[in-house]
Design goal:
By secondary structure, this protein is an alpha/beta fold. Helix content is 40%, strand content 13%. It folds into two domains: 236 residues, Aspartate Aminotransferase, domain 2 (3-Layer(aba) Sandwich); 120 residues, Aspartate Aminotransferase, domain 1 (Alpha-Beta Complex), CATH 3.90.1150.10. The strands form four sheets. Strands 1-9-8-5 form a four-stranded mixed beta sheet, sandwiched between helices. It has a three-stranded parallel beta sheet with strand order 3-2-4, sandwiched between helices. The protein has a three-stranded antiparallel beta sheet with strand order 7-6-10, with no helix packed on it. A hairpin with a 2-residue loop joins strand 6 and strand 7. The mean pLDDT is 98.
């Protein structure tokens, strides 16, 4: 049996007819940028996220850069973010000309550690970026306790948490502004690159729209230097169809995570993930920890199991960020996790039989 890390084909089969009809309509109208489909998706995603405004953009990295810019991040400023994240979180900061200030994560959930955040705040801090990693939300209330007295905006990186909640508040609506990604493998994935910025602030939303459209509030009127980052109509059609199924798909992920927990509970050499108290997890990834991870990964691949690593190298140890001068040992929790984490297959249509094969293969690899 072969079990992929992600099965996009099963999702596509569910939405194929609806997407085909929408694409036929778009191509017949030759309306490929903006228009009704984009507006309808933005409104629907804002409602799903519990915010007033959603602005569709070209991808998740652009979304985060735009969110940081409108939050007031400028060249030379500092932005606090976790060392354990995809490099795009840091890239968005660097593209502005600001400096990523990395902090360690907690050892249980591998989310940004608020105690480390508090230690990293300086007079140059212009934003804090909690990353809602693997499908569960960072401890936003503790981040807010640090940020609010200092007047520091909180910008959520919600790329892996569509539909997640913390204390009944949805991902994408707890900070001043949030960014998300609709890369195909996300819980809500497009048929290519796409992203969005969400906020409850009308001024923030309008500023994002202007920046994302060449700094233009109206055709051929350019008030600021912007960029070209718009959600195209084809992607909006796909996302509208998938958004209707997101809640059900997330519930299927929770059931799959519970099955993994049951199957792995007797396996001593596997550290299972867990959701933090107050979190409703959407299990974008199911990330265990094992010793001899690379050997185990190779054995799983040989058994037909599409396991992965998210992420093998903390940001500060990549060549891209060597200039920060932060060597091994600076963030011990993130570094130790990077050597042990292993992502098991996780997708809404994952069957019990597939999970049994995954776990049996993992147990065999650990012998």
């Amino acid at each position: 049996m072969r079990v992929p890390l992600v099965d996009l084909g099963a999702q596509q089969a569910e939405v194929a007819a609806e997407v085909r009809a929408g694409l036929d309509r778009v191509f017949a109208a030759t309306a490929f940028v903006g228009g009704v489909d984009v507006e309808e998706f933005e409104q629907a995603y804002a409602a799903e996220t519990g915010v007033a405004h959603c602005v569709g953009v070209g991808n998740g990295t652009d979304a985060l850069e735009l969110a940081l810019r409108v939050a007031g991040v400028t060249p030379g400023g500092e932005v606090i973010l976790p060392a354990n994240t995809f490099i795009a979180t840091a890239e968005a900061v660097s593209r502005i000309g600001a400096r990523p200030v990395l902090v360690d994560v907690d050892p249980v959930h591998l989310l940004i550690d608020p105690d480390r955040v508090g230690e990293a705040v300086t007079s140059r801090t212009q934003a804090i970026v909690p990353v809602h990693l693997f499908g569960q939300m960072a401890p936003m209330e503790r981040i807010a306790e640090i940020a609010a007295p200092a007047g520091i905006p909180v910008v959520e990186d919600a790329a892996q948490s569509q539909g997640a909640a913390r204390h009944d508040q949805l991902s994408g609506g707890l900070g001043l502004v949030a960014a998300t990604s609709f890369y195909p493998g996300k819980n809500l994935g497009a048929a290519g690159d796409a992203g969005a910025v969400t906020t409850n602030d009308a001024g923030i939303a309008q500023a994002v729209r202007v920046l994302a459209a060449h700094g233009s509030p109206a055709k051929y009127v350019h008030d600021v230097i912007g960029m070209n980052s718009r959600l195209d109509t084809v992607q909006a059609v796909v996302l509208k169809a998938k958004l209707k199924r997101l809640a059900g798909w997330n519930e299927s992920r929770r059931k799959a995570a519970a099955r993994y927990d049951e199957l792995l509970s007797p396996v001593d050499r596997v550290t299972r993930p867990c959701s933090a108290p107050g979190n409703i997890d959407v299990w974008h990834l199911y990330v265990v920890q094992v010793d001899d991870r690379d050997d185990v990964l190779g054995a799983l691949h040989a058994a037909g199991v599409g396991a992965g690593i998210h992420y093998p190298t903390p940001v500060h140890l990549t060549r891209a960020y060597a200039h920060l001068g932060l060597g091994r040992g600076r963030f011990p929790v993130a570094e130790a996790a990077a050597d042990r984490i292993l992502s098991l297959p996780m997708f809404p249509h994952l069957s019990p039989e597939q999970q049994e094969h995954v776990v049996a293969s993992l147990v065999e690899a650990l012998r």
